[in-house]
Amino acid sequence: MKIFAICMVKDEIDVLEKALEAALPWIDKIFLIDHASTDGTWELIDQKFHHWDKVEVYGQITDEFTDGFRSRAYNKFRQQAQEGDWWCRLDFDEFYIDNPREFLAKVGKHYDIVQCASFQYYFTEKDAEEYQRHPERYRDGESINALKFFACNSSEARFVKHRNREWKEDSL
């Protein structure tokens, strides 16, 4: 079983590297799409991530946004996947608390979609005080380790089992 991810970013220079590094241990390949970033994200992708073995850069898209952009990367790279492999919608600001590879290996063969449980972290007054004392704990994507209060209040499809089909951009 392989896990392929499609990650679309826009102006995420502050968290992109940490997000990609967090996914690398469990992912086989990340297909990266930049959607018209203006903060240096595209330049970082081109200069650094373009050369990572597990990252394949789809390119930069400047059209008006649609979720269907992910279908472009899927259709371009789908021949790398086989039956039984999984595709992940990897959002740049989401970090998995469990290893998806271990979890997906236990999913029954009759299931082909896995939903996520999204935990929203909140910056409280206590966090503001702590930030004033130790701002370094909240820089360079480290806030994920510093924030303690959260709610689990949403769920979306994050993994789908590979089927060798074309994905139409307007079919979402």
Automatic annotation (TrEMBL):
It holds the Pfam family Glyco_tranf_2_4. SUPFAM superfamilies: Nucleotide-diphospho-sugar transferases. InterPro entries: Nucleotide-diphossugar_trans. This is Glycosyl transferase family 2.
